[in-house]
Write a structure and sequence with these properties.
With 404 residues, the chain is of the alpha+beta class. It has nine helices and six strands, in the order H-H-H-H-E-E-E-E-E-E-H-H-H-H-H. The protein folds into three domains: 225 residues, no CATH class; 90 residues, no CATH class; 51 residues. The chain has a six-stranded antiparallel β-sheet, covered by helices on one side.
């Protein structure tokens, strides 16, 4: 009898999951595809978009699987409660955990799938998208075209905004140079034109009537002050030429390397950075003991870089695992909420269950990530804060339903 019950619940969960997964994934895929077409339709062929399609679907799946599991769990247990099946099972002496066991098994399996997607599929997807955006970039810079209010944001350390571009002539141009994830230099110009040398991979902007703003920051937030001190200097010009070197093929993906690594490579990279940080800390302590100011400054710079690299790698590692376990976490929330609302309507069940996820889990995840990159929380707590609080809420709901 137990096997029949568990198979029945599992079968209903899988049927609901597959249907909802196809719908959710298709919606998210179409939204991402529309963004790609809107931004790069002039420069990419249909074959380029088709080549990116399986990677895009894989990346969508990492986000839609937890949402789909939430919707399916809430719907099935809500329908069972609505039809009094839960009450009948309890009256027959079947223990509470038997009813929820299939959902936990399915959630655990989907967490493993999400871990594989986050660890291997998503890094490959980001790499492929970066390759295609570079192809679009070279097409943009090597042809004459007209456009309105466009942003070029896929050149490493540079963002370019303009109000209008026609036959190579810009209007209201903004060029930002990024350093340490902050704007370090901002150039504003009323007009200008662009010369692109495809052999040297060099952009040269010839700008008229504008200003250059240098933004200097002191004291990283991981050190003594929680908020960096800002100092800005501004210079005006009538005409200026600004060269921007595009990265070579082998240098294009040196930035954000952690995002391109699978789990095995990321683990090896994290261990390497840990050793480098320990070695840098030892050299810094030795320099302080000798009291050599110049050596202390040099070693402090090396230590800060090793610390940042190790920190960012740990953040990426923990976020991938914590995000994958969201499929198991939503079972703890969706199953008891489904029994509480006792409704067989798919939209109502999902809408009620999505409230704690959208209002608590995801805001906590974003907040924790932000605190992690500001060095306020450790990578572990920054990545797992939302999961820990969500698990506590889910266990509380399960306990309340069990007692009721």
């Amino acid at each position: 009898m137990m096997r029949i019950l568990e198979k029945y619940v599992l079968r209903e969960l899988i049927k609901s999951f597959l249907l909802t997964f196809v719908v959710f994934t298709l919606i998210f895929f179409l939204l991402l595809l529309l963004q790609v077409i809107r931004r790069y339709s002039q420069f990419l062929t249909l074959l380029d978009i088709l080549a990116l399609t399986p990677y895009t679907i894989g990346r969508c799946a990492a986000f839609t699987i937890p949402l789909t599991m939430l919707a399916s769990t809430t719907l099935i247990y809500g329908r069972m409660a609505y039809d009094n099946e839960i009450l009948i099972l309890r009256a027959a002496g079947i223990h509470f955990h038997r009813v929820f066991q299939p959902a936990f098994v399915l959630g655990l399996f989907l967490s493993g799938v999400c871990l594989y997607i986050n660890g291997d599929i998503v890094p490959l997807t980001i790499l492929k998208q970066r390759e295609i955006t570079y192809k679009a970039l070279e097409s943009i810079l090597s042809v004459t075209f007209s456009s309105e209010e466009t942003t070029i944001d896929f050149i490493p350390d540079v963002r370019i905004y303009y109000r209008k571009l026609e036959a190579g002539n810009f209007r209201n141009l903004v060029i930002q140079h990024i350093g340490q994830d902050q704007v370090a230099e901002e150039i504003l110009a009323e007009s200008g034109n662009l010369v692109y040398d495809p052999y040297k991979k060099l952009l040269t902007f010839h700008l008229q009537h504008g200003s250059i703003n240098y933004i200097m920051r002191h004291n990283k937030s991981k050190q003594n002050l929680p908020v960096p001190q800002l100092k800005e200097e501004r210079f005006f010009f009538d005409k200026i030429s600004l060269p921007i070197a595009l990265p070579k093929e082998e240098q294009r993906f040196n930035r954000d390397l952690d995002k391109f690594k699978n789990m095995k490579e990321l683990w090896q990279r994290m261990q390497q950075f840990a050793v480098q940080e320990q070695q840098a800390a030892g050299r810094l302590a030795l320099a302080k003991a000798k009291g050599e100011a110049g050596q202390i400054k040099a070693e402090q710079t090396q230590y800060d870089k090793a610390f940042d690299d190790h920190w960012d790698c740990r953040m990426e590692w923990h976020q991938r695992i914590a995000g994958a376990l969201a499929s198991l976490l939503v079972v703890l929330i969706g199953a008891p909420l489904g029994m509480i609302i006792r409704h067989d309507n798919r939209l109502v069940a999902f809408g009620v269950a999505a409230i704690p996820v959208l209002l608590i889990y995801y805001p906590l995840q974003i907040w924790g990530t932000s605190l992690g990159y500001q060095y306020i929380l450790s990578p572990f707590w920054a990545s797992w804060l939302a999961n820990i609080i969500g698990t506590a809420i889910g266990i509380g709901l399960l306990w309340w339903v069990y007692k009721k």
